[in-house]
Amino acid sequence: MEMIRNFTDLGKDDTAIAGGKGASLGEMTRAGINVPDGFVIPATVFESTFHGSNVSKQIDALLGAVDDTDVQALEKVSAAIRTIILDAVIPEEITQEIRTHFEGLGTEYVAVRSSATAEDGHHYALAGQLESFLNTNEDTLLMNIKKCWVSLFSSRALAYLFESKLPIEGVSVAVVVQTMIQSEVSGTAFSVHPVTGNNDQLLIEAGYGLGEAIVSGQITPDSYTIDKHSRSIVETRNAVQEKGIFQKSGGGNEWIGIDEDKRNAQKLSSDEILKLSDIILAIESHYGFPCDIEWAFAGGKFSIVQSRPITTIEAIEKNERYTKVYTRENSLIALQIWERHQCELLREKLGSVVPFSIFDVYDGVASVYYREDTSAVWNTLITDAVKKDPDFIAETMWWFGGLLDTLETIWCQEKVESAEDLLLLADIAAQAWVGVSISYFLPSLPNVSSESQDLGMALRKRSVDFLERTDHSIQNTLKYLYPELGELTKYMTIEEVRSGNLPSTDVLMSRQTHFIYFGFKVYVDRDIRGFIREHSLMIAQEKVPESVEELHGQVAMRGSVQGLVRVVYKKSEIPLVQEGEILVTAMTTPDYVPAMRKAAAFVTDEGGITCHAAIVAREFGKPCVIGTKIATKVLHTGDLVEVDADTGVVLVLER
Question: Is the pLDDT reported for residue 474 higher than 80?
Answer without folding.
Answer: yes
